[in-house]
Amino acid sequence: MMTDESSERPLVPCTTRDVAMYFLRLGATGFGGPVALAGYMQRDLVEERRWFSKQEYLDGLALAQLAPGPLAAQLAIYFGWARGGAWGATVVGLAFVLPSFLMVLVLAALYVRFEGLTWMRGAFYGIGAAVIALMVRSVHKLAKLSLAKDRVLWGIAGVSALVTAWTESEMLAVFVAGGAIAMIAQRVRDRAPPAAAMLVWAPDWLLAGLAGPASGSTLWNLAWYFTEAGAFVFGSGLAIVPFLRTGVVERFGWLDDQQFLDAVAVAMITPGPVVITVAFIGFLVAGLGGAVVAALATFLPCWFFTVLPAPHYQRFARNTTLRAFVLGVTAAATGAIAGATFVLGRRAIGDPWTIVIALATLAVITRFKKVNEPMVIVATGVLGIALRALWPA
């Protein structure tokens, strides 16, 4: 029988099916974002079920932080790989993403079908303000987790936040510069030498986005852009938000800021990985085909960046220079999320009522640590409907 070296407690054998069924349930019920989801995995898989050792969990978490892509999804894929190789990684990854993907499809179809209804616009009027508060809290959590008391990382995050807020776009050069600066700082500290270097039949409205049926070129653009998003975004799933806004709103003009904010809101109110917002965006742009293309393009790089290096992970896991580079990129991503929160907040919070909703939401989620975030979102949605009914825009 396997043994957890960190605690000398015997590990309980598990199969790929066991792990997949666990992540199917977590994907359907796990709220709170990537940090919370990683915490659930540690509690359930290491402490309670004892399917994995503490060291396996730490190795998976470190690999998920080192490689680009959404942290929670990559950690799930790593657990699948640890028990079932590439096939296990594939099955577990699909199990984790599938529940929230299906929920998002339903919400996206309703959004496209009934967007003009007053009650739906009212709901997103309230939810949009609440989401800004949730993003503020998430930025605070990410800063505590990834920046700690490192002045260099805080400086990188601050510059990234200012650049994102000023330009209203994410610049890849800032991320690379952040990684390089952190790497140089680490080398100075350690005085170490440089490291070696598809569409199915469905009603027309289900296959069309907000602008009607999409062309083949639009689907190709979706595929390439979301592949970039999955391949170049580090850390929390929220790190993808500023990157997506740059392309979805500014570069391609697929959505306006309000529609993009609604997509982020949907990701916040559904369980599973936050990055599933890509499926909602894809549906708004190109219907069901767009949702499938966007989701596959985003998660495939995540799969490759987890499964391919996993067997060789120990060779570079303790490379301090590489870790410093990743920390710098993560700091820049945290700053970009803060800047994107400011940009989106200017559009979501534009009158006294939305200010009250945002501040009240922030107060509630800060004061009551175990508050159910989806219930907060539902409450603010109902409040938004009532406010719009009493005082139409």
From TrEMBL:
Domain of life per record: Bacteria
Positions of transmembrane segments: 20-40, 61-81, 87-111, 123-140, 152-185, 222-244, 264-285, 291-310, 322-344, 350-368, 375-391
Gene Ontology CC terms, in alphabetical order: plasma membrane
Keyword tags: Cell membrane, Membrane, Transmembrane, Transmembrane helix
Entry's localization field: Cell membrane
GO molecular function, one term: chromate transmembrane transporter activity
Topology of the protein relative to the lipid bilayer: Multi-pass membrane protein
Main location: membrane
Signal peptide: none
InterPro entries registered for this protein in UniProt: Chr_Tranpt_l_chain, CHR_Transporter, Chromate_transpt
Family: Belongs to the chromate ion transporter (CHR) (TC 2.A.51) family.
Protein name from the UniProt record: Chromate transport protein ChrA
